[in-house]
Specification:
41% of the residues lie in helices and 19% in strands. It has a five-stranded parallel β-sheet with strand order 3-2-1-4-5, sandwiched between helices. Strands 6, 7, 8 and 9 form a four-stranded mixed β-sheet that branches. The chain contains ten helices and nine strands. β2 (49-55), α3 and β3 form a beta-alpha-beta unit. α2 packs across α7 and α4 (85-92) packs antiparallel against α5 (98-120). The longest helix has 23 residues, at 98-120. It has helices at residues 4-19, 32-45, 63-74, 85-92, 98-120, 131-140, 173-182, 187-190, 210-229, 282-295; strands at residues 24-27, 49-55, 78-83, 124-126, 163-165, 238-252, 255-268, 276-277, 299-304. It binds xanthosine-5'-monophosphate. Xanthosine-5'-monophosphate binds at residues 102, 147-148, 150-152, 194, 196-198, 238, 272, 309, 313-315. Keywords: ATP-binding, Glutamine amidotransferase, GMP biosynthesis, Ligase, Nucleotide-binding, Purine biosynthesis. This is GMP synthase [glutamine-hydrolyzing].
């Protein structure tokens, strides 16, 4: 039985030995794993760890501000935000194939990050790999083709000439959360639902543009706030909105409206491999729907996704 206090002390000591005097870089997404990895390495070597937070324009409402507020202002990490919104959005223009979107975003991410690593003169790269990732990648070597080519920062090292540092390699997710709490990372980060690397690009079905992203961001924000308010956010494994490329007729006042259909996706799952749609009470769904229809211009109809995985996947793309 593994004492996590000791783990933290020993790991910091180990990291200090390995990395003191070195320049170290990390891609910080604001997700649980990368956050805990960064804070742990920061404890060991301080500002010699530079965390790079890439704003690719596909993040949720307030997300860049919240991440910078927690990691820069509150936890005092050396973190830079790269505003790469235009780069990503111009590359994605007119692209509707989900795998192409993932490929473009993955490659562009590497390019942005590579520039940062070079200009900082980094020799080491921190990654938030945890035990289940180690198992997964061992399996996927032999497995049949993946359904979706998951892009996250795990794709970084092969193309870069940096030594990899993976302080969480031996931990399970629940242990990572406990370590994060012990390191003083706020609950909002530790209990964050997973968010895909390609972000909202795979939640705007079809080609992505700024107008659609704005509609989706507002709707998603209302969904998440309402789930928090009603106590459902932490009971659900993942909840999000999806903007469909379908418009539907409605009435606004006494006029005909013709606006987008928005799908709400909420699932219960353990590791994301299988999932059940969440049995959220009707009154909560009602509140979500009313708030979105009243508050988000461009959405004319809200539907709830009642598909489990398999055969449906969690994301729509
Ligand atoms: P699916 O849609 O495959 O999703 O049932 C399972 C889990 O993986 C997340 N997901 C991704 N994560 N890059 C990521 O980092 C991706 O391209 C990607 N696609 C799906 C999804 O949000 C869910 O948690």
């Amino acid at each position: 039985n593994w004492n996590l206090e000791d783990f933290i002390t020993q790991k910091i000591e180990e990291l200090r030995k390995e990395l003191s005097g070195k320049k170290v870089i990390a891609a910080l997404s604001g997700g649980v794993d990368s956050s805990v990895a960064c804070v742990l390495v920061h404890r060991a070597i301080g500002t010699n760890l530079r965390c790079v937070f890439v704003d690719h324009g596909l993040l949720r409402k307030n997300e860049p501000e919240e991440v910078m507020d927690v990691f820069k202002n509150m936890l005092q990490l050396n973190v830079v935000k790269i505003d790469a919104r235009e780069r990503f959005l111009s590359k994605l223009k007119g692209v509707d194939d989900p795998e192409k979107k993932r490929k473009i975003i993955g490659e562009e991410f590497i390019r942005v990050f590579e520039q940062e690593a070079k200009s900082y003169g980094a020799t080491h790269l921190v990654q938030g790999t945890i035990y289940s990732d180690v198992i997964e990648s061992a399996k996927s070597g032999k497995k049949t083709a993946a359904i979706k080519s998951h892009h996250n920062v795990g794709g970084l090292p092969e193309k870069m000439d940096l030594k990899i540092v993976e302080p969480l390699r031996n931990l399970f997710k629940d242990e990572v959360r406990i370590v994060g709490e012990m390191l003083g990372i706020p609950r909002s980060v530790i209990h964050r639902q997973p968010f895909p690397g390609p972000g909202l690009a795979v939640r705007v079905i079809g080609p992505v543009d700024e107008e659609k992203l704005d509609i989706l961001r507002e709707a998603d924000y209302i969904l998440i706030e309402t789930l928090r308010e009603t106590g459902w956010y932490e009971k659900i494994w993942q909840a999000f909105a999806v903007l469909l490329p379908v418009r539907s007729v409605g009435v606004r006042g006494d006029r005909r409206a013709y606006d987008y259909v928005l799908a709400i996706r909420c699932v219960d799952s353990v590791e994301g491999m299988t999932a059940d749609w969440s049995k959220i009470p009707h009154d909560v769904l009602d509140l979500i729907s009313r708030r979105i229809l009243n508050g988000v211009k461009g959405v004319g109809r809200v539907v709830y996704d009642i598909s489990s995985k398999p055969p449906a996947t969690i994301e729509w793309e």
